[in-house]
Amino acid sequence: MVQVAQRGPTVSVLAYEGMSVFEVGIVTEVFGLPRPEFDVPWYELTVCAERPGSVRVIGGASLHTPHGLDAFTAADTVIVPGVPDVGADSLPELVAALRRAHRRGARIVSICSGAFALAGAGLLDGRRATTHWRYAERFRQRYPGVDLNPDVLYIDDGNVLTSAGSAAGLDLCLHIVRRDYGAAIANAIARRLVVQPHRDGGQAQFIEAPVTADPADERVAASMAWALAHLAEAITIDALARQAHMSARSYLRHFTRATGTTPIRWLIHQRIQASLALLETTGTPIEKIAEAVGFDTAVTYRHHFTHTMQTSPSAYRRAFHTGNAADQQAPSNKQPASSLR
Q: Contact at 8 Å (CB) between 79 and 25?
């Protein structure tokens, strides 16, 4: 009997006049390349335009696609990677297409200035959203009904997701993979792209920030690598500072400048990320997982997990557990839990 291959989720991305190919390239890299090694029905990507045909891009080249707004609207996930002019209204045809996709239940995604198209279609009214920090004030003036937060890399507001500048679109695309297929596959994609599976902090750390070559940053990076290798142990700021050969006060200053966050927030985030694979692939009790990744108590772990992931560890497990290794257990941890919590 012939088996029919299972169809993967469909994704469409909108090409527009004068765009950078990087914006479409982000989406293509994550959703368009075949991934047979994962043994899951991978995404089916379609590059579309407002009208089928050639689309001029930066550098004098043209991108040709036979797919117009009908194909764009029909996908499970619809992505607007930017707009030609943040001061102009989107074409009525695009506005109508986005509204149709939203009514149909598609997941609507914007990257960078693409949030202007979503807002122009009314899809962000009363919702949390973000866009590139350069456009934040203009966005607020045009769309006061949107709860704009320009300090984050992306915002997941259910079936409408927005990201900051172009590179933050990569963070959001990896987040979508994590939602659809779990942390292990998202992390594998990130490794192949040679990027972090999830960047802590937000785009505020990049606003008009000077580029420096401070040797202290290398020492901070070394202390972070040490912390990742000792997550289950008691880690204090003094211990991190010693690893960086700094005073605690200097370490705090250099760490915040280099990462855009504090050592405590960073460490909490890393411990939560480390717990995801255990929730997805093992049947280890929540209390044991909390201990294995360095939280003092399960109550503390649940508090930080819910704040970060906007769901509880148990709900996350129900949504993402693979069911292939429910009898596996997290590694035994005899070390004291961290004082950073």
A: no
- In terms of Cα–Cα distance, which of 59, 63, 18, 26 is closest to 45? 26
**What digits encode the pLDDT tens for the residues 221-277?**
889 989 999 999 989 999 999 999 999 999 999 998 887 789 999 999 889 988 988
Mean pLDDT of the chain: 87
- CB-count exposure of residue 162 (10 Å: 0-12, 13-18, 19+): buried
267: CB partners within 8 A, 6+ apart = 227, 231, 235, 294, 338, 340
CA 230 to chain centre: 25
pLDDT value at 339 more than 50: no
Q: What are phi and psi of 212, to 5 degrees?
A: -125, 160
- C-alpha angle with apex 168: 165 to 171, nearest 5 degrees? 165
Integer Rg of the chain from CA: 22
pTM above 0.90, yes or no: no
pLDDT over 80 (residue 146): yes
Give the 3-state secondary structure of residue 87: coil
Residue 212, number of CB atoms within 10 A of its CB: 9
SS3 content of the chain, % helix, strand, coil (to 5): 50, 10, 40
Enumerate helices (H) and strands (E) in the chain, giving the number of each. Answer: 14, 10
CB 297 within 8 A of CB 341: no
- CA dihedral sign, ordered 10, 14, 15, 20: negative
The pLDDT of residue 321 is: 76
Question: Residues 86, 137: contact at Cβ < 8 Å?
Answer: no
